[in-house]
């Protein structure tokens, strides 16, 4: 059930440009990214592109897994 919910969240986030993707590789970097989004908006295009690419791959992987286990 959680994976189905995650799939919907990925889909919604990827559909709209106003969602921000924060990669939680380290707590410090994630906190800095969130602070920068709050203070300056989405200024770090490279980090957002990286986060979006990871989200797209997670969306594909999750969808593939759910389809495989539904059979």
**Annotation, overall tally of beta strands:** 0
Give the overall form: elongated
**Helix-strand string:** HHH
Counted by DSSP, the helix tally is 3
Biggest sheet layout: none
> Spans with pLDDT under 50 lasting ≥5 residues?
none
Helical content stands at over 70%
Quote the distance from N terminus to C terminus. Answer: 16 Å
Beta content comes to under 5%
Topology:
Layout: H1 2-15, H2 27-40, H3 45-70
Helix pairs in contact: 1-3
What can you tell me about this protein's structure?
The chain is mainly alpha-helical and 71 residues long. The protein has helices at residues 2-15, 27-40, 45-70. The relative contact order is 0.17.
Summarize the structure.
This protein has three helices and no strands. With 71 residues, the chain is mainly alpha-helical.
Q: Which short descriptors sum up this protein?
A:
71 residues; mainly alpha; 3 helices; 76% helix
């Amino acid at each position: 059930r959680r994976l189905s919910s995650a799939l919907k969240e990925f889909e919604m986030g990827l559909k709209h440009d106003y969602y921000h993707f924060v990669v939680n590789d380290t707590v410090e970097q994630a906190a800095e990214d969130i602070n920068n989004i709050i203070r300056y908006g989405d200024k770090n295009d490279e980090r957002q592109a990286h986060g979006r690419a990871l989200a797209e791959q997670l969306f594909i992987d999750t969808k593939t897994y759910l389809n495989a286990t539904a059979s």
